[in-house]
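[recover] target loaded
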C-alpha cells in the first residue's frame, strides 16, 4: 500500500534514506528556531529604528526652527551693527581679542602653575644640597687653610714655582691672592688647578736635589757657586749669574743661555772669517791634497793587485767611495773641495762654507765639552767620510762584485781575499813615506799566519810579499816558507822537551832552492 520494498537490501537502503531524511528534518528544525530568534531580533530593531526616525524627524524640525531663529538673530545683529556704526564693530573686535587672550592666559596660567610646583620641589632639593655643601665646606676649611698656608710658603721660595710652571705666579695672574682663605678669588683656584695638572718629568725629594747639586759642583757649574738654601718646608736653589748677583738657579740658567747665544753669534761671525781666510783657503788646499794623496794610495794598491790571482783565479781590488750613511753636507764638501778655491763661483764658495759649518756644528752639538780645535779636527777628518769596499772578480762571473758577509766563499778564500788588500795597503803606505824616510823598514808582522788557507796558496801569498818588497816576520806551527817564490828566508824552529828545562832553537836558511841548517842554540 505504501510502496515499501520487500527485499532486505532495499529495506536497508530505505532505512538509510529515512535516517538521512531524519537528520535533515532535525537540521531544518534548528534553522527554523534560529530564524524565529533572528526575526524576533529584527522586529525589535525595526521598533527602535522607527523610534529613531521619529526622534530624527523631531530633531530636524527643531534644527530648522533653530536655523530660522539664528538667521533672524543674524539679521537683527547686522541691522544693529549697521545702526550703531564702526564704534560697536571696534568694540566687538576688541571683545574677540580679549576672549582669545583670556583663553591663552588661562592655558599659560595652567602651565605656570605646573612649573611652579616643579620649581618648589627643586628649590627644596637645592636648599638641601646647599646645606650639605656648606657643611662639607666647613669640614674642609682646616685643609683649605693648611693648603693656602703651604701655597703662601711656596711663594716665598725664590725661583721654585718659576722652575715648575715656567713663570712666577704673580706674573701668570696679577690678581692671585693667597692671603685670606675666606676671599680666595676664582683666578687663584684656576691657577692652583693648573699647577695640579702639570705633567712634571719626575718628583724630587731633598736627597735627589742634594745629589744633583753635588753633580753641579763637580762640573763647570761650580764657577757659579750653586747652593741649596732651606726656606720653610722647601729648598731654594741659588747661584751667581755672570755679573755675580745671586739669583734662583733657573734665572741664572736663562741668563747664561742668553750669554751663550750672544757669544755663539759672535763665534759664528769669527767662524765666517776663519772659513774665508783659512778653511776655504789653506786648510781647504791641505784637505784637497790629502784627498788626492789618499786617492793615489788607493790607485797604487789597485795597481799592485792588478796582476794577482788566487789559486782559484779570484782577483781583488779596493774601492774608496763615499759612505752610504754620509749626509748631504759631506757630499757637498766632497763635490766642491776637489776643485781649487779660485775655480769656485761665489755661490759654490757659500755652499762649501755652509757645508763645513754644518759639519762643525754637528761635532759641537755631539760633544760640547771639547774645544773648538777638536771640533775642527773631527769635522774635517776626511777619512771618516769614505769607506773601503773589497771588490771581487771570478773567472766564471763577468764584472766585479762587492765582498759582503753573504758572499759565497770558503773560509780559506775569505782569508786570502782579506790578505791581498792588507799587503797592498802596507806596501802603498811604505811607498808613500819612502820619500821622507827612505831607510824606513817595510816590515809586516803576522802571528799564526795563513790559517785555514790551502797549502797550494801559500807560495802565492809569500811571493806577493816578495813582489811588494815587504819584509816580514811570520809565526806558525806548520809554515816554513821554503817556496820558489821566496828568494831568501831565515827560519827558526823552537823545540821544547817536557822533561827538560829551556827551549832549543834550530836555525835554517832558505836560499830560494835549498833549505839548510846552521845548528842549534
Amino acid at each position: 500500500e505504501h510502496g515499501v520494498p520487500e527485499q532486505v537490501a532495499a529495506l536497508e537502503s530505505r532505512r538509510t534514506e529515512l535516517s538521512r531524511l531524519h537528520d535533515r528534518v532535525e537540521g531544518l528544525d534548528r534553522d527554523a528556531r534560529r530564524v524565529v530568534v533572528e526575526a524576533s531580533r529584527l522586529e525589535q530593531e525595526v521598533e527602535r529604528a522607527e523610534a529613531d526616525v521619529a526622534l530624527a524627524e523631531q530633531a530636524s524640525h527643531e534644527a530648522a526652527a533653530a536655523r530660522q531663529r539664528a538667521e533672524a538673530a543674524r539679521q537683527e545683529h547686522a541691522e544693529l551693527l549697521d545702526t550703531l556704526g564702526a564704534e560697536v564693530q571696534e568694540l566687538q573686535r576688541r571683545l574677540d581679542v580679549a576672549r582669545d587672550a583670556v583663553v591663552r592666559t588661562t592655558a599659560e596660567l595652567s602651565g605656570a602653575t605646573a612649573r611652579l610646583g616643579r620649581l618648589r620641589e627643586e628649590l627644596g632639593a637645592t636648599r638641601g644640597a646647599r646645606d650639605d655643601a656648606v657643611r662639607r665646606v666647613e669640614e674642609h676649611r682646616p685643609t683649605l687653610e693648611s693648603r693656602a698656608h703651604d701655597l703662601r710658603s711656596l711663594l716665598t721660595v725664590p725661583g721654585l714655582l718659576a722652575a715648575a710652571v715656567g713663570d712666577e705666579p704673580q706674573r701668570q695672574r696679577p690678581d692671585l691672592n693667597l692671603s685670606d682663605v675666606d676671599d680666595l678669588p676664582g683666578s687663584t683656584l684656576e691657577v692652583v688647578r693648573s699647577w695640579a695638572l702639570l705633567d712634571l718629568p719626575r718628583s724630587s725629594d731633598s736627597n735627589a736635589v742634594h745629589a744633583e747639586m753635588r753633580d753641579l759642583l763637580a762640573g763647570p757649574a761650580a764657577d757659579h757657586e750653586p747652593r741649596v738654601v732651606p726656606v720653610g718646608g722647601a729648598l731654594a736653589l741659588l747661584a751667581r749669574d755672570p755679573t755675580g748677583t745671586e739669583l734662583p738657579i733657573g734665572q741664572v740658567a736663562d741668563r747664561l743661555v742668553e750669554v751663550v747665544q750672544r757669544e755663539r753669534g759672535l763665534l759664528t761671525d769669527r767662524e765666517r772669517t776663519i772659513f774665508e781666510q783659512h778653511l776655504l783657503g789653506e786648510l781647504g788646499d791641505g784637505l784637497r791634497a790629502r784627498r788626492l794623496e789618499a786617492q793615489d794610495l788607493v790607485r797604487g794598491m789597485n795597481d799592485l793587485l792588478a796582476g794577482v790571482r788566487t789559486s782559484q783565479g779570484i782577483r781583488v781590488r779596493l774601492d774608496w767611495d763615499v759612505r752610504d750613511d754620509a749626509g748631504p753636507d759631506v757630499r757637498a764638501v766632497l763635490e766642491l773641495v776637489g776643485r781649487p778655491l779660485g775655480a769656485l763661483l761665489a755661490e759654490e764658495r757659500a755652499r762649501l762654507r755652509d757645508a763645513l759649518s754644518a759639519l762643525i756644528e754637528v761635532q759641537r752639538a755631539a760633544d760640547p765639552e771639547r774645544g773648538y780645535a777638536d771640533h775642527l779636527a773631527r769635522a774635517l777628518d776626511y777619512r771618516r767620510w769614505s769607506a773601503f769596499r773589497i771588490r771581487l772578480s771570478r773567472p766564471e762571473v763577468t764584472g766585479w762584485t762587492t765582498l759582503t758577509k753573504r758572499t759565497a766563499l770558503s773560509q780559506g778564500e775569505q782569508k786570502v781575499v782579506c790578505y791581498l788588500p792588507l799587503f797592498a795597503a802596507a806596501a802603498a803606505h811604505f811607498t808613500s813615506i819612502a820619500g821622507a824616510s827612505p831607510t824606513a823598514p817595510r816590515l809586516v808582522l803576522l802571528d799564526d799566519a795563513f790559517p785555514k788557507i790551502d797549502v797550494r796558496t801559500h807560495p802565492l801569498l809569500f811571493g806577493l810579499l816578495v813582489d811588494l818588497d815587504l819584509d816580514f816576520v811570520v809565526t806558525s806551527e806548520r809554515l816554513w816558507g821554503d817556496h820558489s817564490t821566496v828568494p831568501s828566508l831565515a827560519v827558526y824552529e823552537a823545540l821544547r822537551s817536557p822533561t827538560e828545562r829551556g827551549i832549543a832553537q834550530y836555525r835554517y836558511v832558505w836560499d830560494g832552492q835549498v833549505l839548510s841548517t846552521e845548528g842549534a842554540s
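[recover] notes: DSSP finds twelve helices and eleven strands in the chain.
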